[in-house]
């Protein structure tokens, strides 16, 4: 699986692979392999990426086109 969206989101923030790799506590080479789809991203790393980019894992892996992080939506419950 190629993770085009994680590259696009990184580039949108003008970040280098090295910067995201440091945040994720992986090497730049590993992060590069994630973006190219040469290495599967562990669920914990996907969750950290979703949190960092304020989106969902479903968006990152292409299951939805909605970037909205539903955990940040305000609840109307009283």
TrEMBL record:
Database matches in Pfam families: HTH_3
Every HTH cro/C1-type domain range: 6-60
Gene3D superfamilies, per the entry: lambda repressor-like DNA-binding domains
Keyword DNA-binding: yes
Entry's Gene Ontology molecular function annotations: DNA binding
InterPro entries, alphabetized: Cro/C1-type_HTH (IPR001387), Lambda_DNA-bd_dom_sf (IPR010982)
Superkingdom assignment: Bacteria
SMART domains membership: HTH_XRE
Entry keywords, A to Z: DNA-binding
Protein name: Helix-turn-helix domain-containing protein
Lineage, broadest ranks: Bacteria, Bacillati, Bacillota, Erysipelotrichia, Erysipelotrichales
């Amino acid at each position: 699986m190629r993770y085009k969206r994680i590259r696009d989101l990184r580039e949108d923030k003008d970040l280098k692979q090295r910067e995201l790799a440091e945040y994720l506590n992986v090497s730049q080479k590993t992060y590069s392999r994630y973006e190219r789809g040469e290495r599967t991203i562990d669920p914990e790393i996907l969750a950290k990426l979703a949190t960092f980019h304020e989106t969902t894992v479903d968006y990152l892996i292409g299951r939805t086109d909605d970037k909205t992080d539903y955990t940040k939506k305000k609840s109307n419950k009283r």
